[in-house]
Amino acid sequence: MDGTTHGPDDARMAAGPGEAVGRAVTRLEDPPLVRGRGLFAADVNFPRQIHMRVVRAELAHGLLRSVDATAARALPGVVAVWTSADVAEIPSIPFRATKVQGLEPYCQPVLARDRVRYVGEPIAAVFAEDAYLAEDAADLVAVDIEPLPAVLDAAAPPAEFAPGLHTEPTIVRKGFGDVDAAFAMAHAVIELDLSVGRHSGVPLETRGAIARYDAARDLLELHGAAKKQHWNRDEIARLLGRPPSSVHLFEGHVGGGFGVRGELYPEDLLACAAALRLDRPVKWIEDRRENFLATNHSRQQRHRIRAAVDAEGRLLAIDDVFFHDQGAYVRTHGARVVDLAAGMLPGPYRLPAYRVAGHFRLTNKTPAATYRAPGRYETTFVRERLMDAIATRLAIDPIELRRRNLVATAEMPYPRPLDVLGSDVVLDSGDYAKLLDQALDRFGWKALRESIAARRASGECVGAGLAFFVEKSGLGPSDGVRITVDHTGTVELVSGAASVGQGVDTVLAQICAEALGVGYSGIRVVRGRTDRIEFGNGAHASRVTVMSGSATWQAAQAVRAMALETAAPLLQLSPEVLTIRDGIVQRKDGATEPSMTLAEIARQMGPNSPAMRGRTPGLTAEKWFWSDHMTYPYGVHCALVCIDRGTGAVKVERYLVANDIGRAINPMLVEGQIAGGFAQGLGGALYEEFRYDETGQPLSTTFADYLIPTATEMPALDVLIAEDAPSPLNPLGIKGAGEGGTNAVGAAIAAAVDDALGQPGAVTTLPILPGTVMRLLDRAAP
Amino acid sequence: MSETRRITLIVNGEHREAETPVRQHLADFLRGTLGLTGTHVGCEHGVCGACTVLVDGHAVRACLMLAVQAAGHEVTTVEGLSLADGTLHPLQQAFCDHHGLQCGFCTPGMLTTLVEFLAEHPAPSEEEVRLAISGNICRCTGYDSIVAAALAAARALRGDAA
Questions:
Q1: pLDDT at A270 over 50
Q2: By the 8 A CB rule, do A329 and A107 touch?
Q3: What are the pLDDT digits (tens) for A499-554?
Q4: First to last CA, chain A
Q5: Chain segment A443-464, per-residue pLDDT in tens
Q6: For every residue of A401-435, which 3-state class applies, written as one string?
Q7: Mean pLDDT for the stretch of residues B47-67
Q8: In this protein, which residues make up the domain named 2Fe-2S ferredoxin-type (chain B) (predicted)?
Q9: CATH T-level topology, domain A301-474+629-780
């Protein structure tokens, strides 16, 4: 298959479960976590450490007239107070991997210079002997801001945002085919105006940064890191003028990532700079209010979309203009969410012509970036609303309409003349129509329609809806894994990946165990550390199982081959008749003798073994998996909702996520990803929203205002994991499972609410709040 | 501002005596002063439930209680749930067996909340378990696996065959 590097030794794994892969085994991660023995950011402490507290803007937009830290500095126990003048030499926080030019002037300084642009923007940093004192001192920093009007509507006409800066740093344009001709010949044109609200990952663990400088080794360490250790390491080194090898990042346990955690933020730089300059370890732990104000927001977009269709409802063209509310600065993702939205909007459908303009707009709100299924949660909502609207207009059943437009299996791999994240979109494999049938069957769609009719007859306001989605996963280009068997036979796996709590250690251990022929539970997995492996691309974009999993498979195959080659002459057998079971090299035919343990082989390969003269010692191999193309999981969401006519509350009663992910390494963990992802999608569909008043003051700064689904909001959830379309792009056929549970929730629930209300197209905005539903109910009332 | 008091209390069965600032909340005292970092601080406004500990057997938000208020009381944290020989509490074991955690940050609060709940409701329905943990936010799992773990633990604690 093109786009994939296959070494001579990397066999593809056969379909179906193996000894370790495909098994719902328990997690390696769990024992310390259930005992309270994890190491989250706030659990990291160093002798002599001081605590940092950030003073933040309390106005959305204004000129920063003065920052007076006199009283704060005078407080006993305060070590230092910094304002922008103290960090003037540190460049703004950069962004990575975008082809969009000209965004640099829009990046965020570590402390605000002459103007504040959102409530929560760092203005000063206080360093004190304990965290309570640091907070006291922060309260004493007097900030004088001259207020300016706040820009809050990303769809408003573009204007000046700050001197020399525009509210529209860039427009992302993509497309193919003759859109205007398609609209000119269309049987019908359907036009919608749709919005997705501002919400985000909101992990239960807030951010943290613990920096210390080791003068003896001239080494700067940052603990509490996550997700992108190596890129962050390189950038911290660059921004602070140090060689990368003198900076190390360490990931402990991470209390959820979801896109927002582990990006490089101003506080990371402040902590590192302070550790260097103040010569004390510096600990910063974000509080929850700061997390709501300062950690990346996401999602907020407004789409004005048109579709041209023929008389049978086949798509001829889509023309979309959307406005992405980026907030006050461009952060580490650059314009990535706009790029993803523009590139992924067509989803699973055959589309002859497409034109999209994504307006990347600044507002005086918290900066935005990725959140689980970025650009897809939004555009699946938009695209599937559009499909429902087409079905209504042409009086075609919405399921039948989708069937007519789905890309067929025979068309796979299906290249779409688009790029996403700099890589060409090629839908690598899939049987979309089959999964749609399976989903409808599993959800009992036919019987459900009858029961809905009966319940409506008895006065209930119930409805069902569905949505189809295509995800993307396995963002390359590379990741590496080094596997070593030590002289006790213990296997260590060192990966450039990271973990944000999803079970990476277990999954990589299962793949290693399968390929090498050892038990998974004894494998020691190391990740998230820049001092143990030189490169790594981290944990995001549903890439770890695909990329690091494939590298694990290849490295373990290489160690296996090495072990067999070493053992064969000693056992006086040819390597071809040998295999490895439970860490013992023995004959394939089941004879238990002669045999040799991996520990014995590792000792044979030690640095002082005469056999290794002139060779690199160790039973160890490092492999780097390369991929030019992403792989595209897909699925169907089905929802049954019931609306309370008295309150407008939408209750999701039943829900199905059907998701083809090629191969489930651990079905239990895949279900966990999908269920958790669904809960987050549910939040964005019905409950979660960062709201602002007309002056740009945030109104959602506690868990009492920003409503995350609890156990009682969860419907009866069914998960159908399909493995009908393994990816041809990697040796295990894997597609990522991290985001399919989230992707289509807004879309499916919107369709179900429409159906319950009996008002096709009624839902145009997420989240669907009770007030909106009440207005819709009133509209329908006679 | 930094007035302190010396307090004595029982933590996980051990007699502890320590100096605490009067304004320090119990979660910071357990984590910072006693080094019991298993109790997690998720919101400091009493909504998320991550910091839940047992005080005299009852679930309490350790971020909403001052350390000095715990003087003379008996506190159990997640570190105190397993047996002296290290054997996991049936709830801890069930969380492992049923994938009741992903990142693990909410887990200590879930476990302590459920310890109290199962002590009072040895044979709960699924709905009752959901209500019992409805004051604890989990951002990773979607809760179903936690509910399954709790029901399995209830069976184990009753001595029913799993």
A1: yes
A2: yes
A3: 999 999 999 999 999 999 999 999 999 999 999 999 999 988 889 999 999 999 99
A4: 61
A5: 999 999 999 999 999 999 999 9
A6: HHHHHECCHHHCCEEEEEEECCEEEEECCCCHHHH
A7: 98
A8: 5-81
A9: Aldehyde Oxidoreductase; domain 4 (3.30.365)
Chain B within 8 Å of A37 (Cβ-Cβ)? yes
For chain A positions 676-695, those within 8 Å of chain B (CB to CB) are: 676-680
C-beta atoms of B139 and A703 within 8 A: no
| Domain map (residue ranges) of chain A | 30-38+475-626, 41-149+206-253+261-294, 301-474+629-780
Average pLDDT over residues A753-773: 98
Confirm if A199 and A299 have CB atoms less than 8 A apart: yes
Residue A163 clears pLDDT 90, i.e. is over it: yes
Buried b (16+ CB within 10 A) or exposed e, A344-376: bbbbbbebbbbbbbbbbbbbbbbbbbbbbbbbb
Find the residue in B nearest to A290 (Cα): B43
The residues, any chain, with a CB within 8 Å of residue B49's CB and separated by 6 or more, are: B42, B61, B106, B109, B110, B113, B133, B135, B136, B137
Tally DSSP H helices, then E strands, for chain A: 19, 31
Q: Among 3.30.70.270, 3.30.200.20, 3.30.365.10, 3.30.70.250, what is the CATH number of A30-38+475-626?
A: 3.30.365.10
Query: Does the distance separating the beta carbons of A710 and B143 come in below 8 Å?
Result: yes
pLDDT of residue A2: 34
Tokens in use for A501? 């709590």
Q: What is the mean pLDDT of chain A?
A: 96
Q: Residues of B with CB below 8 A from A29's CB?
A: 104
Q: Do A711 and B146 touch (CB under 8 A)?
A: yes
Say whether domain B4-80 belongs to CATH 3.40.366.10: no
| Least trusted range by pLDDT, from A538-552, A678-692, B110-124 | A538-552
* Inter-axis angle of helices A398-405 and A432-443, nearest 10: 160
B34 interfaces chain A, CB cutoff of 8 Å: no
What are A214-237's pLDDT values in tens digits? 999 999 999 999 999 999 999 999
Environment class of B128 (CB within 10 Å of its CB; exposed 0-12, middle 13-18, buried 19+): middle
Q: Please judge whether A717 and B142 are an interchain contact, meaning their C-beta atoms are less than 8 angstroms apart.
A: yes
**Which residue in chain B is spatially nearest to A137 when comparing CA positions?**
B1
Q: Which residues of A touch B42 (CB under 8 A)?
A: 204-206, 288
Q: Name the packing angle between helices B90-97 and B107-120 (round to 10°).
A: 120
Identity at B12, one-letter amino acid code: N
User: Which band of pLDDT confidence, cut at 50, 70 and 90, is reported for residue B1?
Assistant: low
Is residue A520 within 8 Å of A512, Cβ to Cβ?
yes
Confidence of residue A781 (pLDDT cuts 50, 70, 90): confident
Distance from the A165 Cα atom to the nearest Cα atom in chain B, whole angstroms: 36
ipTM over 0.90 threshold: yes
Q: Give the closest of B36, B39, B143 to A711, CB-based.
A: B143
Determine the Cα–Cα distance for residues A191 and A319; give it in Å rounded to an integer.
9
Name which CATH class applies to A41-149+206-253+261-294: alpha beta
Tell me what percent of the residues of chain A surpass a pLDDT of 90. 94
Fold observed for domain B90-158: DNA polymerase; domain 1 (1.10.150)
Locate the DSSP E strands across A310-413. Answer: 315-327, 354-362
Angle (deg, nearest 10), helices A229-239 and A266-278: 50
Distance separating alpha carbons of residues B149 and A520, to the nearest angstrom = 23
Q: Could you tell me the two tokens for A430?
A: 């899939």
Q: Which of residues 72-91 of B touch A (CB under 8 A)?
A: 77-79, 81-82, 88
Q: Is B18 on the interface with A (CB under 8 A)?
A: no
Contact B47 A704 (CB under 8 A): yes
> Pairing between strand A578-581 and A414-420?
unpaired
Give the whole-angstrom CA distance, residue A266 versus residue A276.
16
